[in-house]
Write a structure and sequence with these properties.
Length: about 270
Amino acid sequence: MAHIRLLVRPLAAVTALSAGLALLTGCGDGSGTSGASGPAASGPVVVATSTWEAALAKAAGAKNVTSIVPASIRHAPDYDLKPSDLTAVAGADYVVYASFEPWAGRIKEAAGSKAKLVEVNLDNTPAAAKAEVTKLGAKFGTERAAAKWNARFTTEWNALARQVKATWPGGKAPAVAAQMFTTWAAKLAGAKTVGMYGPEAVTPAQLSALSAKKPQYVLENANMSAGTVLPGSGAKQLDIVNYPGKDLDLLAVYRNAAGQMEKAFSGS
């Protein structure tokens, strides 16, 4: 997955933040999200840049997982680093990040961490999500937990797909226009994707072309949304969330999207 807006701090600025570490205790300020099962959670200490990476790590079997960017931040690259973030990285065994977050490497450098950097691909399609969980499980030494989660994911995906299909309007696959990072939701719904857009804002020409294809629904990316995508087209817009919440439950992302689509398709 790629994003357009990137907030990249100069190294000097991040390094300046690290100067404040001597004044800090080993505790964070509570702004991040923790997936640790307790104060003595076993296994590697994993610090992830956002809840998406953190949820992948948790799915892979890591029990001591912390997200730097709070779940309340809609677009992770917009987050402004704090000294406490560097404190968290200083104690990490692994730092999990995505390629569109270049400041992840600078966090590691500024904090003087010896953590291993692990880059992941943020994509909620089944094949991509399971591949990342498998990869992280191999890194963490939690292969069995990762395989168990992948099996559960497949079962849940198939169940959700059946539920959504049962609500198709008139028993037919609905026509949808999807933002390029919500195509997984269209796949989950078994919908007919008549158009795709983004991640840039829809241009007047694209608006005309997409509207002409008469989608019944627009699956917008809630984490990058700038508002109504196809105004005046008659298409109902569903804002699909890609990032997990503070509980770091990646499966909840799929459940929530399925619930949105079921409600929209059934007209309830």
